[in-house]
Specification:
two-stranded antiparallel sheet; 23% helix; 5 helices; Rossmann fold; alpha/beta; 9 strands; seven-stranded mixed beta sheet
């Protein structure tokens, strides 16, 4: 985690910030002091309950929504994605990045942290699924399936370029990468 926090410190997070898939607010608490305003989205009410409690006393705006059907009511200077890109099903990638373009103010950027292809060594992929899927076993013994599409830095850079983004993606360590993406032709 310290390497990831250090990587976040080097990313241009400022202004009006949108965090997609905020989960329990682990990253939200690291963004709040860098933002003029902070909006955090998640589809899971239980995650938002934890995030709200963690962020009590701040002006963070929380929205419960499915990111794939969400329509922004404003634009943001920075959109932050922590370990979310790897959960976007391949059939949704283009629409997702178009939505991110719509959510950005002119001159804004997407910043992200995620797992690299090396994580395949330690993930339990489920066979015979339409999209790459992993099984997650929690401490309470429950098991859950999650979409997990792993990227390497050059591959993601190329894919974003094909979708009309200027991207810089680099490895943080053997298992993670960080990146910045701006719509091609933006300030």
């Amino acid at each position: 985690m310290p390497r990831l926090v250090k990587a976040l410190d080097g990313l241009p997070v400022s202004g009006d910030v949108l965090e997609v898939a905020c989960g329990t607010g682990q990253w939200t608490q690291l963004l709040v002091d860098r933002a003029r305003s902070l909006t955090a989205l998640d589809a899971a009410p239980e995650m938002l309950r934890i995030a709200r409690a963690r962020m009590r006393g701040t002006t963070t705006r929380f929205i419960e929504t499915d990111i794939f059907t969400w329509e922004p009511d404003r634009q943001y200077d920075t959109v932050f994605l922590a370990f979310w890109l790897s959960h976007v099903p391949p059939v949704e990638v283009e629409a997702f990045w178009n939505l991110m373009r719509w959510a950005l103010r002119p001159g804004g950027c997407i910043v992200f942290l995620d797992d690299s292809t090396a994580k395949a060594e330690i993930e339990e992929f489920v066979a015979e699924t339409r999209v790459p899927t992993v099984r997650r076993r929690l401490a309470d013994g429950s098991q859950h399936l999650a979409v997990k599409v792993l990227y390497d830095a050059p591959g993601l850079t190329s894919q974003l370029n094909d979708l009309g983004w200027e991207a810089h993606v680099e490895a943080i360590d053997a298992y993670h990468f960080a990146g910045i993406a701006r719509p091609r032709g933006s300030e």
